[in-house]
Structure formats: structure tokens, C-alpha cells
Amino acid sequence: MPHALAHTPNILYTIVTMFNDCIIMAGGAGTRLWPVSSNRIPKQFLPMPSPSTEPEAVAPGSFFNAAVERALAVIDQNGDGRILIVSGRNHMAPIIEACQKYSANELSRMVLIPEPEAKNTAPAIACAVNYIDWMSGEERKVLVLTSDHIITPTDRFIKDIAAAEAFAQADKLAVLGIKPLGPETGYGYIEAGQVISQAKEIPEVFRVLSFHEKPGREKAEEFLAAGNFFWNSGMFAFSSKFILDEYRRSAPQLIRPFDRLRAPGETSFKTEGGLRILWDWLNLDAAYNETEAISFDYAIAEKSSHTIMVNAGFNWRDVGSWDEYALLAGSNGAGNGEVYQINAKNCFVDSDIPVALIGTEGLIIAVRSGKNGRPGSVLVAKKGETQHVRDIVAQIKAQGRNELL
């Protein structure tokens, strides 16, 4: 159980002190939206659906673009604020394409770090923070953002991030928690303890007692009834040297391979589409090969005695299923693609070839024809059943048909 905090930061919520660096986690396969989301173009690079009830969510581009917009809103653009994008090497093309909408000044603040292999979030953050430490040589305030969520409104996001930033300055590990709207089994949970900061018009801040992975239905209902469990947003704030110390204390075997890296030289970088890419960081492949695959929550956050949680007041959607995606994007034959229909009701289609519906009702249809040279795939699911897409993906893997993913 966390020890008592030495002090509560004096937080000025009306003035946002910006972060020096923002890490955008842009890896992952996004298999819950298969076959449109794939290993090559996962969910974060798909067009973001626009909730009709949340006009601010209407933003050009993808989930990833929305994450970059959030990062630009909270980094220090008057100083040397930077955005580090951590993603797989096979995702470089969609990232470069997505970044073409940004100005030369905005691109000058971005660096893409391509991971040689997927090892979950703890190695990815360790890699990025080591880069920050090597390139700066000083204490930096760091924010970790996800790249596949819908978050609105921006002004409330900034207010909550200001609280996290204030505690990060005080050598705390701040996580953004979301008040649950139901017994959701697709999210991790945070058990909150004592309130340590509470005032009118600012977010509550709690001690963190424990982290819990995605629960079954019965356990999720228990968490909801308890009243002190929050969804884990996967967003964290901390200072760079503090978190490196936490790695060395809680996960020395994980951080050790990254500690052996050296500052990359100019020849380590290349530029494509105006985006600076850390293409050849000496010994990075060896570091990833040697480290373990584990989440930041397990490796660091749940072991730290300095973890606190900000009760985020913004609207947060993970869009973790085709049902939710269709609900946000619209139904009755709406969606992405050319759709023809007769006597079709309450259906959603996302297809790169024309689709005709006759006498159908309550279906979600996702089609990728193979125009890009990959095998074509079709999903036909009854609405309310799309949580089983992950089970279909497991069957595909078991059959050794990974080219379909």
C-alpha cells in the first residue's frame, strides 16, 4: 500500500504549465476491428468516427491524428517541446502519411522511433524516456498518450492534464482514470484509495491502491458496485529522471538493455515527408531482443509507492468493438463505402468495394477486398456479437493464417 505523500503540490489549474515531451504510443494491431484494422494498418490509423452528440470529436484524419493534436495542445511550443511517436517498423508508412497534414514547425518537434519488435508498453516507454534523457541531459516533464481513443472536450482534457503535470513535477507517477459508465470487461481497472486533492472545479486526485487487468463480467460488476474503481486510460505523466529511477528499482532487468544505449548520432536519423525518423539507433534491436514483454502498469505503475490517479472529467471512448464503432459512425446502411440496399434495416457497412444489402437487419459488415495486395477478408456479424471478433482472430492465428491479420 502506498506510503503517505510528502506533500500535495500547489496546483494552478487556470494556467497550464506545458510538458517538455509527449510520448505517443502508436503500436498494437487493433484486432478488435478486424479485418479493417490489421497488423499493417491498425485501428489508430483508421478514420475516427464522429459522435453526433460530441461535435468537437469531428476532426479530420485518424485516431492517431487526434492524439497528435492533443500532444500539440499540451507541449511547450514556446520552448523545445517534442513529440516522440513510438510504433512498429511496419507502421512507418501510415504514420508518415498521417503526419503530412502538419506544418514544418510542427513536424520539427516530432521524432518517430520505430520499434524492432512489439514488447508491450513498458519497453516502449523505457526506450522513449532513455532517448529523452540522452538528448536532453536534464529533468523533463513527460506525458504518455494513447493513440486509439476518442477524447472530448479538449479544454477539459487540458485541465485534467494540468493536474497530472503538477503531480509529475512533485516526483509522482500520475495516471488518468475514467469513471466507469458500466461493468465493462474490455478495460483495465484502477482501485482508488484516499482522496489527496479535492477542490471545486478541479479534478479529484487519489492514491492508487492497485491495478487490475481486464476482468470477467462478475468481477467488473463488483468493481462498479464498489464505487472506487476507475477505468485505466493508459495515459501517464511523470518526470524523466524520476521514472528512470522507478524502472531501475522495480524492473532493473527490463531497463538495463536500454541503459546500455548511447545517444544516437546524426547519421542515425533520416527524414521522410518532413518527419524525422530514428532509423538506425545502434544496439536498439539487441535491447529489444534482451528485454521482456510486459505492460507499463505491471512493470512500474503498480509497484511504485508514488502512483496517484487523476479522476479525469473528459469524455473517453476506447471504441473497442465494431458495435461501438458503428454506433458512433451511424447505422441504417451508413458507414464507409458504397452501399446499395433494399429493405435493409439497422445495418452498418465498412467496405472498400461496393456492397448491396437485401432484406437484412441488424448486421455489421466489414470488407477488405485485397486491393492492396494482401488477402481479402470479410466480417459479417450480428449487432451485439462483435466482441467475439477477438475469438475469430484467435482462430485465424491457430490456423497459421497470420497473413489475414
Count up the domains.
Answer: 2
Average pLDDT over all residues: 88
| Helix content percent band | 25-40%
Query: What is the name of the CATH superfamily of the largest domain?
Result: Spore Coat Polysaccharide Biosynthesis Protein SpsA, Chain A
Strand content: 25-35%
Work out the oligomeric state of the chains in this entry.
single chain
The gross shape turns out to be: globular
Descriptive account of the structure:
This protein is 28% helix and 26% strand. It is built from 12 helices and 19 strands. It has helices spanning 63-74, 92-98, 104-107, 121-136, 154-169, 217-226, 240-250, 252-259, 284-290, 296-301, 322-329, 389-398, and strands at 21-25, 82-88, 110-115, 141-146, 150-152, 173-178, 189-197, 205-212, 229-239, 269-272, 275-278, 307-312, 315-317, 335-336, 339-342, 348-351, 355-358, 363-368, 377-382. Strands 6-9-7-8-12 form a 5-stranded mixed β-barrel. Strand 18 (363-368) and strand 19 (377-382) form a beta hairpin. Helix 4 packs across helix 8 (252-259) and helix 8 (252-259) runs antiparallel to helix 9. The radius of gyration is 21 Å and the shape is globular. The two termini are 41 Å apart.
